[in-house]
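Re: [help] complex structure
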Amino acid sequence: MVRRALSYIGSALSQTYQAVKASTDASVLGAARFLGLLYGPIDRSLPVDQALKKTLRYRLAPHVGWRHSLGGIAYLLFVILVATGVMLVFYYRPSPQEAHASVQHIVSDVAFGWLVRDVHAWSANLIVIALILHMGRVFVEASYKPPRETNWLIGLLLMVVVFLFGASGYLLPWDQWSYWLVAEITHAMEGLPLFGATMADAVRGDEVVSGATLSRFFALHVVLLPWIAAALLVYHFTLVRRRGIAPPMSIPGDAPKGAAGLGVPFFPTQLLRSLIVSSLVIAVVITLAAFFPRPVGDPADISTVPESLVTTWLLADVARALIRYVGPWLFIILLVLLGGLAVLPLFDRRPARQLRDRRIALLLGAVFFLIFASAWFAGHQMRNTPPSIAVEHDSGASEQAPIPIEPLGLSPIQPTQPENEEGVP
Amino acid sequence: MKRSQLFYLALGIVALSAVAVPRPAQAQVRVTLDDTYGCVRCHADKRQSFIAGIHSERGLRCHDCHGGDPSSFEIDAGHSQPFLGAPTKRETVELCASCHSDPNQMRQYGLPADQLAEFRASRHGELLLIREINDGPACTDCHDAHTILPPEDARSDVHPTNISSTCATCHDDAEMMDPYGIPVDQFETYRASAHGLSLYEEGNAASPTCVNCHGSHAALPAPAGEVPNVCGQCHVLVRQEFYEGPHGDATLGGRRPRTINCHRKHGTEHIPHEAVQATCRECHESGTPEDDIAGALQETLVQAEEDLEAAGRSIDELVRHGRDVTSAKLRFRTAQASQLQLTLVQHSLDSLRIEDLSRRVRSTSRGIQEIEEVSQEHRWEHKLMTIPVWFLALAVVFFSAIKLSGVRRTDE
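Output below.
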């Protein structure tokens, strides 16, 4: 009786599986490929199971190694950010009255809320490092050279989008640190020539950082940027497959036809490598979250400049250092450098990939990296209140040049020695 | 009735109506602005300063104080009798008092009419009016002669923010103060005191100035026995506790308590809790029972302060880790209130009440610290959680590596 029932259920399930298989297009495997679980081309003329087997057997180029996992790490961190971000948005309330309290609620009361929030915050930092390293690897190996210029540009755009993600997310905790850092950056933006004031107004949506700014940043962070990032990612991955992985530096020009498909198989070798890297990255992120949770500052207060500003995002440190040391030319310098890197493939079209043949390009890249690293280091040392903000707050004159001032507060008169006489005055 | 009689009758009625129906002060034309007013032809500078003051607003004219005939434009006729000219200090006091001692005139402005009586009772009045020494100030020395402004006007020399420096114009003058043996550093000492800092640094206009303790028109130094009452006018609760203690008893018993030694006089200052015993030792010798009480009091006060600070640090730590601190903050307020009561009750030296309050501060602060300790334990648990995470991650790495080497061998 039981055997008959089991047999009946088994055949029913088998029939359903066959029916689903027959009616499913192999294109569905594209979703798995988007998640990094597949790499090779998908033969859409085959049934889905055979197409899967075929794509799993795909072999990568022989020179593909561990260093190629940097982009994958950045993507994994992006996926972690999306997953934790979705979890956070279930509890986060984007209004000046509720934002800070809701973050407090997430880390205090929600089960594993602290973990989700701190993993989100740490991933936002690590993704910047992963992206810089990924970009550095592509740059040093000259992988941006034809025919991969478009993907280099897409990659740069993706980096800008990730930076915008971080910048817009930075204000959301609505604490003193995030509020006044955004205030400092928008204030610096005002000093930019031509479009500075307009741009600052557009970013803030108000004359000062306010609820309007919070709404804008939230909308950017959870509505607009995810779509842009998704579109760019799909195209980035598509181009990686279509153009293939760039050949090693020793081979000038593009890889010979058919070079791909001679190395290690995607399954299981490359997938196991991904698994190893992913496990380690996840463990590192959780460890950082548990040992170094992002502190929660006091609720944002528009009328009180905090005595110290704690930054919790790598790029916040970079931005602060450039504002303090470079002033309003921050964006211009960044744009020039970024523009220089963006147009590099258009000028550096020689097939040579060896380091000794690309001294100028390497110098440009090194300058960018050095500025970035030293700005981060300098910004990380800073804890004091932004002088520009303090001056503006103190005098109400936004045009006034930023000058260092004493911390807010009055300098009391030093008490004289108490009288020694006694009795009647 | 003759025409001339009719004329004089009409003139009389007009004159009477002018006297009987006084116009509101504000509606009066400022006669000093009138070019037909003789005095201003020559004394334009005095006019400038006078019209800025309240007396001009109230309709007073030059001749109301100085006499003379303002309808005349001739120097001699204008200065015709009765003409007072520039009054002496004593004449000034009498002149001001002629209105300011009249309750009927002062009533509408809500001003007291006993200012002259108060002044006579003051050390200043004694000097000027009784001993006839011109070192004693007259009204115009503090209130200005022409630009007389109400005390609530910030430009006035007697405004709370200005009065102490007004007093200091004489009391900082070593030559003038020397014959009376009055030190001249009082203003600087006051500026650096708790009261002075509150006024000049924190902008608290309610802070006491010279006149709050010494009186204004009746300016006198307070005898030592009266000091607790003088301070107690503002520090009401401290005064109550003080009189419940042995020092209060000593004051009431006429013995010299020398209470002023604790907080100083012009240099009034808060005594840090850790300096309590040292302050007591200014009067009570080391090793005496009083010194032991002082030591115990200091220990209790310092402990309560430390407890409260520890609770504050715990709250900061909780905030830093995103914990909701509403209830902890409420408890902290309770502990703060107990500590405030403790600082008041210490003036009574009532050891039972002092101990009770310090216990309350300690237990409430301890409760807050316990909340933080629980949070600390949670954070420790978070760290422990990384052990299984790394165990899993390394297991994945280990088995994947084994599988990879197997695949590589097969591939080769």
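DSSP finds 24 helices and no strands in chain B.
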